Automatic annotation (TrEMBL):
It is an enzyme of class 3 (hydrolase). InterPro entries: Amidohydro_3 (IPR013108), Metal-dep_hydrolase_composite (IPR011059), Metal_Hydrolase (IPR032466), Metallo-hydrolase_Enzymes (IPR052349). Keywords: Hydrolase. Its EC number is 3.5.4.1. The keyword Hydrolase applies. Residues 39-398 form the Amidohydrolase domain. It comes from the Bacteria. The keyword Cell wall biogenesis/degradation does not apply. Pfam families: Amidohydro_3. PANTHER family: CYTOSINE DEAMINASE. This is Cytosine deaminase.
Length: 426
């Protein structure tokens, strides 16, 4: 007797299997002939582990237009607008916006998020708010918090002090932004300092690193060295890395092996990187995405991040990680079938590894969290960005949606149409 069985679904590797769930764990995967309290019929549908977002800014989410719209569309104007907003936003406002976004996330099968929390202001209301959200959503969504000195660890007079205060309050990941310090030297010094903090406290380290079009912004080189020095390995992630888009190939031929040697991971954010970068170019216009394929070829774990939804930096967004992967595969030109399937793994398995999620996956003993999608394969899911027919979190059904085929009124044609395609039908 199972509490829940997901029947007849197609797993990402193409296997057709039932998934039996007891409590909050997957108990069996295969052909299951048993009763269950609840059965989800997933015949012909893709059953995936939940989507994971390793890079987000939840303290600013759903604040688009406050205090006004980012007229230039640049990263720096967005930071300036956020500086105004964080000075006036209350804890209750940030909590309400974040919880609403978490509702969106659950509906899209996004059940794990790492969010950077601005630790610049001395009041630390954002930290207080996100810790409250973390506790509220814990039964159904894993939320990691990063202590993020948005205005710089050293550039802000109390930047370092406030980052340490946030960690003492319970924030579990060390952040950083070296390219926003006053000088390249101070940026490098901040990385050495932050690496020591992460190592001494036994925490993960996730740095906004080289989010610029300047090819001389090479802080990731220092970061990789510090990751190796302190043995942080996959506990460390370099987010954005957009300057690598503009670096010369000879230097990158040295840099990528250093990154791979360190064991650190990388998190490009395609929707935001290609929107914010290249704003000072005429033509040719740079798109600002880091060298995804080259990093992966060197053995670096790379995952796609969402970064922003309806905030001072980005005017769109739906909490759909398939939108992120869809944009990423286009900009990175990852269009071979194997590369497209890899893009799906980047918003599931690879992102789970970056966040250090335990018991993730569709194996017996894993946490019983999964998504049933109206698609047959991972590549088809990327093409369609389909409805999530069911979302299960820790053994509980937390979202469901009816299949929504379109009805046609065309002479001699079928009465309804679906955009799914297995390659065998005309």
């Amino acid at each position: 007797m199972f509490d829940l069985i997901v029947k007849g679904g197609t797993l990402p590797d193409g296997t057709v299997a039932d998934i039996g769930i007891k409590g909050d764990r997957i108990a069996e995967v295969g052909r299951i002939e048993a009763e269950a309290g609840t059965v989800i019929d997933a015949t012909g549908d893709l059953v995936s582990p939940p989507f994971v977002d390793p890079h987000f800014h939840m303290d600013a989410v759903l604040s688009y237009g406050l205090p006004r719209v980012n007229a230039s569309g640049t990263l720096l104007e967005g930071i300036s607008l956020w500086g105004e907003l964080r000075a006036q936003a209350s804890v209750d406002e940030m909590v309400a916006r974040a919880l609403r976004y978490c509702d969106w996330a659950v509906s899209m099968g996004l059940l794990a998020i790492r969010t950077h929390v601005d630790t610049t202001p001395d009041h630390l209301r954002g930290v207080e708010a996100m810790l409250q959200v973390q506790r509220t959503v814990a039964p159904y969504l894993d939320l990691q918090l990063v202590a993020f000195p948005q205005d710089g660890l050293y550039r802000s007079p109390t930047g370092r002090q406030n980052l340490l205060r946030a960690l003492d309050m319970g924030v579990g990941v060390v952040g950083g932004i070296p390219h926003f310090e006053r000088t390249m030297e101070e940026g490098a010094d901040s990385l050495r300092d932050l690496a020591r903090i992460a190592a001494e406290r036994g925490l993960m380290w996730d740095v906004h690193c080289d989010e610029t079009d300047d090819p001389m912004s090479r802080h990731v080189e220092t970061m990789a060295r510090e990751v190796t020095r302190h043995g942080l390995g996959a506990r460390a992630a370099g987010s954005h890395l957009t300057s690598m888009h503009s670096m010369d190939n000879y230097y990158v031929s040295k840099l990528i092996p250093l990154i791979a040697e360190s064991g650190m991971t990388a998190i490009p954010n395609p929707l935001i990187n290609i929107t914010l970068q290249g704003r000072h170019d005429s033509y040719p216009k740079r798109r600002g995405l880091t060298r995804v394929r080259e990093l992966q070829a060197a053995g670096v774990t790379v995952g796609w991040g969402q970064d922003c939804v309806l905030d001072p930096w980005y005017s769109l967004g739906t909490a759909d990680m398939l939108d992120v992967a869809f944009m990423g595969l286009h900009v990175a030109q990852m269009t071979h079938p194997e590369e497209m399937a890899r893009c799906f793994r980047m918003v599931t398995q690879d992102n789970a590894r970056i966040m250090g999620l335990h018991d993730y996956g569709l194996m017996p003993g894993s946490l019983a969290s999964l998504v049933v999608l109206d698609a047959g394969t991972p590549v088809e899911a990327l093409r369609l960005r389909p409805d999530r027919l069911a979302v299960v979190s820790k053994g509980q059904i937390v979202a469901q949606k009816q299949r929504n085929d379109t009805r046609l009124a065309l002479p001699g044609r079928p009465e309804q149409v679906r955009r799914r395609h297995d390659g065998t039908r005309a």
